[in-house]
């Protein structure tokens, strides 16, 4: 992993260490076209990094020196950020995967401490490997369905 502390003018190499070690290559890690097993930088948050691993979610607040595995998330296929909820000061987080044993599309408005399922069993849309929230409108989410187009949704009023 490469880290910059001067807005990208220079980079230094830093080891990526996860609490349970790095994933083994060649194991079933889901679909490689998806958003799992990737590092994500939180918008407008210096040093705040997330690893959306196929088998869990990890967070670092110190530019990746130390990652902590978060509870509740067992599997990730897609991960993204969106505009913060009203009165919140941290971006909403979206993921497609399994949370507390339930497969679905989820949103967190409290830095991944709790999750709300935003789809239901009648709205699965097949293979979903990409998700992002709208950066300007809280709650709007865009989902890439791999063959069925891009679906977007807004919270019910």
Description:
The chain is mostly beta strands and 157 residues long. It is built from no helices and 13 strands. It has a four-stranded antiparallel beta sheet, with no helix packed on it. A four-stranded antiparallel beta sheet has the order 7-8-9-10, with no helix packed on it. The protein is 0% helix and 38% strand. The chain has a single domain, classed as 7 Propeller (Methylamine Dehydrogenase, Chain H).
For this entry, give a set of tags.
single chain; 157 residues; mainly beta; Methylamine Dehydrogenase, Chain H; 4-stranded antiparallel beta sheet; globular
Write the layout of secondary structure elements.
Blueprint: E1 2-3, E2 12-13, E3 38-41, E4 49-53, E5 56-60, E6 68-69, E7 73-82, E8 92-99, E9 102-108, E10 116-117, E11 130-133, E12 141-144, E13 150-153
Antiparallel strand pairs: 1-2, 3-4, 4-5, 5-6, 7-8, 8-9, 9-10, 11-12, 12-13
Question: Oligomeric state of the chains?
Answer: single chain
Q: What is the structural class?
A: mainly beta
CATH C-level class = Mainly Beta
As for the number of domains, it is 1
CATH topology: Methylamine Dehydrogenase, Chain H
- Give, in spatial order, the strands making up the sheet with the most strands: 3-4-5-6
Overall pLDDT metric: 89
Number of helices, where a helix is a run of at least 4 consecutive DSSP H or I residues:
0
The proportion of residues in beta strands is 35-45%
Q: CATH H level: which superfamily?
A: YVTN repeat-like/Quinoprotein amine dehydrogenase
């Amino acid at each position: 992993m490469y880290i910059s502390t001067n807005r990208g003018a220079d980079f230094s190499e830093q080891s990526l260490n996860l609490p349970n070690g790095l994933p083994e290559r060649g194991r079933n890690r889901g679909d490689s076209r998806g958003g799992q097993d990737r590092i994500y930088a939180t918008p407008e948050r210096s040093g705040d990094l997330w690893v959306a691993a196929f088998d869990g979610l990890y967070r670092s607040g110190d530019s990746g020196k130390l990652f902590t595995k978060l509870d509740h998330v067992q599997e990730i296929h897609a991960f993204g950020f969106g505009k913060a909820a009203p009165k919140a000061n941290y971006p909403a987080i979206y993921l497609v995967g399994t949370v507390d044993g339930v497969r679905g599309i989820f949103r967190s408005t409290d830095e991944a401490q709790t999750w709300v399922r935003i789809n239901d069993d009648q709205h699965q849309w097949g293979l979903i490997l990409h998700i992002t929230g709208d950066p300007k409108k809280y709650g709007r989410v865009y989902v890439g369905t791999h063959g069925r187009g891009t679906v977007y949704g807004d919270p019910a009023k």
